[in-house]
Amino acid sequence: MGRLHWIIFFTFTAVSALVPALHASAGDADPIYKSCVEDCEKSGCVKDKCFQHCKFTSDGKPIDGPWYLQEPLYLRWKQWDCRSDCRYQCMLAREEERQKLGDKPVKYHGKWPFQRVYGIQEPVAVALSALNLAIQFHGWISFYILLHYKLPLRPNKRTHYEYTGLWHIYALFSMNSWFWSAVYHSRDVELTEKLDYSSAVALLGFTLILAILRAFNVRDEAARVMVAAPLIAFVTTHILYLNFYKLDYGLNFKVCSAMRVTQLLIWAVWAGVTRHPSRWKLWVVVAGGGVAMLLEIYDFPPYHGFVDAHALWHATTVPLTYLWWSFVRDDAEFRTLALHKKVK
Questions:
Q1: How many whole angstroms separate alpha carbon 57 and alpha carbon 44?
Q2: This prediction's pTM
């Protein structure tokens, strides 16, 4: 029980730090930065660097010149326009000045000053999101192969494991979430932001349902519906609120953190009372998940413009996801062999 108390203390300490961690950006309020952006939008240049985009309207039509001088299609698709390029170059110029003065980096429009690579806003976060997606896909395929080709099946060719369908749904939600995470970190616009936030909320909501059903060994379909229905309603309402009423970052952060902490506690309690042979993997994932939450709370600027706390959070989820799917496979094997013996 001592370990359980430590987990509870750790996770509630993390939640208590959520509100102070949310703060407004300082960089976009800097008068020098604002003046730079205004001048750039008029002249199309920051120092000796000029942008073709500033000769076009937001829909890609030229302000002056013949009709065939259109904004390149790939640039319009990524929505790099005059304002976004002006903001980016002014941010870099201002941060260079601040660094010479010995000042620390600040956020601009809610984001740290990242270095673009081939037009990608946060290349490290994109790469790690893609890696997480690959790990999820590998875990899902290995889970499927184990159930259908290595473990005994029922006479009707269905699996003995009662949570097979739930883990398949979990895999789809996870891969969808990491896909939109990669897209969002590649280019932060309103659409990609909402898709990233919505998919993350949906994933957290489903993993909370899954934690309750597995930890409490809920196998009856009617009971599963009774557990899932109110949580699905809550998550759906929250997603609709974010997309069609107000994208409230503070509220969303609290809701997502509450769902994370709740399922960590459920898994921690279950690991403490169960006789499951792979419960040590649960302890590692729970402890690792708690540490990873700190990276979301105690933010810091990107190292050399590439690796910030959020990117490190993506990095920590890679080994945790691999271990998590290892536990899922162990659980499937453990339950299948136990049920197969009963059938015999």
A1: 12
A2: 0.84
Which H, E and C letters describe 182-245, residue by residue? HHHHHCCCHHHHHHHHHHHHHHHHHHHHHHHHHHCCCCCHHHHHHHHHHHHHHHHHHHHHHHHC
Write down how long the chain is: 344
212 and 133 assigned to the same domain: yes
3-state secondary structure 49-71: EECHHHHECCCCCECCCCCCCCC
CA separation for the pair 241, 227 (Å, rounded): 22
The residue out of 49, 71, 101 marking a domain boundary is 101
Cβ atoms of residues 259 and 15 within 8 Å: no
User: Distance (Å, rounded) from C-alpha 176 to C-alpha 196?
Assistant: 9
Amino acid occupying residue 203? L
pLDDT digits (tens, 9 = 90+) for 219-250: 999 999 999 999 999 999 999 999 999 999 89
CB 248 within 8 A of CB 242: yes
Nearest Cα residue to 177 out of 213, 141, 136? 136
User: How far is the first Cα of the chain from the last one, in angstroms, to the nearest whole number?
Assistant: 37
Query: How much is the CA Rg of the chain, to the nearest whole Å?
Result: 24
Give 254-298 pLDDT, tens digit per residue: 999 999 999 999 999 999 999 999 999 999 999 999 998 888 778
- Ordered alpha helix ranges (H), the chain: 2-16, 18-21, 31-43, 73-78, 82-100, 123-145, 164-186, 190-215, 221-244, 249-273, 279-297, 309-343
Is residue 296 situated within a structural domain?
yes
Round to whole Å and give the CA distance between 33 and 173. 40
What tokens does 303 get? 């190292």
The reply to whether 88 and 132 lie within a common domain is no
157 and 291 belong to one structural domain: yes
- Residue 257 tokens read as 């953190």
- C-alpha span between 320 and 98 (Å, rounded): 38
